[in-house]
Amino acid sequence: MSDVAARAGVSTATVSMVLNGVNSTRISPQTQQRVREAAEAVGYKPNSVARSLRTQQTRMVGLISDTIASTPFAGRMLAGANDVAREQGHLVVLVDTERDVEAERQALQALSGQQVDAIIYACMWHRVVEVPEGLPGDAVLLDCAPASGGRAAVVPDERAGGMAAVRELLAAGHRRIAFLDAEKRFDLVASRLRYEGYLEVLADAGIEPDPALHVRAEPVAGGGREAALRLLELPEQRRPTAMFCFNDRMAMGAYAAAHHCGLSIPGDLSVVGYDDQQLIAADLDPPLTTVALPHYEMGRWAMEVALGLLKGDPAVPHLMPCPIIRRASVGPPPAQFGD
């Protein structure tokens, strides 16, 4: 800083004010420009360690995750968090623990030792978690909710998303709507909430749910194909004209089942997925109407709360809307089944 001051012909205090962005009417634009040019000429870089000691900020945010870094949704969630951090001049330090308790403990100790300004605890899918010991009280939970409450958290509004999917099919004229659900053994929060949304919309429409139209399978393409084939083997008057699938992978399996049975989508069968997963939803033939998981928006919200730009309510998780993405897999029911 002394070198910059000497080259620009000003005091070190003036250099400090200019380079730290302090607004002062005493420093003319010409002088400010001269200081910046001098700093560039001598290769001046602020000492981040010294600055953190003075400001009590390291400008770093720790993000601890389970297996998020290897999931198809991780990129959007991390992008949202990182964009906010970069806008605020912070660096994100990502630690992927692979759901190892000891790795989590070590990560928390390391981030605490680095005196990061904030911590975000993220999960690869929406679930309820036991907060790890040592997680600071002001840490923000991303795509998960604390079992005992008391923490700022953000999760997708799965129930409303399920309702949006079924309303889309009702609006097209369908009344026999199946739900291809994940098997109970996976114990997924999203499964329960999406099913609740499905039932609520049917009830609002005066439709008695048919237990035969709620089928469970492994939430992958093969499981979706097997579940859809079971439904398509029902007697004609009980067979669904539309399928709401737990995720896009199951919807991909439903496409395969329909093609196996010589049915067209959406001419003979309408399908709605969930997730808006890259390389699946928009690339199916026809492109899949689906409900998007708001990973980018959740990542932004978590970082904004972590940095104090927003206030999170520790009493209840923040529900992020899951919008319907309309493509070409929904149409009216076949003429013989129309109302």
UniProtKB/TrEMBL annotation:
Record InterPro entries: HTH_LacI, LacI/GalR-like_sensor, Lambda_DNA-bd_dom_sf, Peripla_BP_I
Domain of life: Bacteria
Keywords: DNA-binding, Repressor, Transcription, Transcription regulation
One Gene Ontology molecular-function label: DNA binding
Transmembrane segments: none
Domain HTH lacI-type: 1-55
UniProt protein name: LacI family DNA-binding transcriptional regulator
Organism from which the protein derives: Lentzea indica
